[in-house]
Amino acid sequence: MTSTLGKHEFSVLDSEQLLDSPILSLRRDRLVMPGGGQGAREVVEHFGAVAVVAVDEQGRIPLVYQYRHAVGQRLWELPAGLLDIAGEDELTCAGRELEEEAGLAARDWGVLVDLVTSPGFCDEAVRVFLARGLFEVARPVAEDEEADLILDWVDLDQAREMVLSGQIVNSIAIAGILTATEVMAGRAQPREVAEPFAFRPDSLASRRQSAGVSPDMKKINR
């Protein structure tokens, strides 16, 4: 007997946009479920993001200590940011964020890991880069939460211990630090930066660009 498990097509019957805000949108899809029934699923639409593990010649990485209002606490994180500029590729965005948050640029780039952060309700996906061959550049004047962030250099091995001890809880930082540890120990190789970012979300960005919201896709009328 041939099993049909894992073969159902969850086709979308209709969609309703429930909320539209500068950095995300919320929609409700009605899907065809196995057995012929229907079910509603809410999806938080996101621009996607990038993050950077920047390793210097001493094996240290910059970490930022930044307030995150959703959890009401400051968290240790990697330099990171949204893919919110229309037409900007992931590597360009990563270079911009590394400059803005750490005052650094890099000569050597690779891809450490792609991750889908909360697939149960959100289409956010993040590409984490490895940056080496670092040099200092002028850091732009910070605004909003970034005006309060602390930048600190930490040995990569110490950052790994901070993950394992629970001091670092940001999932993007955890994934980036642990994969960077494998690469720097010679047990893995970074991927090419030209490799397509298959999970990069498109729904929110496409809708904003179709409405003429460009280049900064966050700038909508509220």
TrEMBL record:
Keywords: Hydrolase
Region ranges (Disordered): 203-222
CDD domains xref list: NUDIX_ADPRase_Rv1700
One of the Pfam families matching this protein, by short name: NUDIX
InterPro entries referenced in this protein's UniProt entry, alphabetically: NUDIX_hydrolase-like_dom_sf (IPR015797), NUDIX_hydrolase_dom (IPR000086)
Family matches, as PROSITE patterns: NUDIX
Alphabetical list of SUPFAM superfamilies matching this protein: Nudix
Domain Nudix hydrolase: 45-176
GO biological-process terms attached to the record: nucleoside phosphate metabolic process; ribose phosphate metabolic process
GO terms assigned for molecular function: hydrolase activity
The name this protein goes by in its record: ADP-ribose pyrophosphatase
Native source species: Corynebacterium alimapuense
